[in-house]
Amino acid sequence: MLVSALRRQAEAHGGFAMVIRKGDPEAGSLMIIRREKGENPTIFEPVPGSSATREWREIVHQVIDSDEYISKYCQRLASRDPDIWIIELDVPFAQRFTDILAAIS
Known about the structure:
Layout: H1 2-12, E1 16-21, E2 30-36, E3 39-47, E4 55-58, H2 67-80, E5 85-91, H3 94-104
Parallel strand pairs: 2-5
Antiparallel strand pairs: 1-5, 2-3, 3-4
Helix pairs in contact: 1-3
């Protein structure tokens, strides 16, 4: 359900979403790859916490300069968590990504 909401919100905010890896529909965690106009990929995951709203944090703090790096990173995550969902959101600019996350929280 969260993946569907992300897809709808991405489209509503002028971007698009693509499911990279389908996980378990009920128990799968989620990782988001954000791109701005197809560039500057950044990886985010939900932060566990006591807040009523879902919070996200950037988990790769370096410049990602290749799709190969992202692919290998996703493979490592999936090997540790076979239930994980990986979705890529391509947005016009970073503020739209923030708006999308706010809309689904």
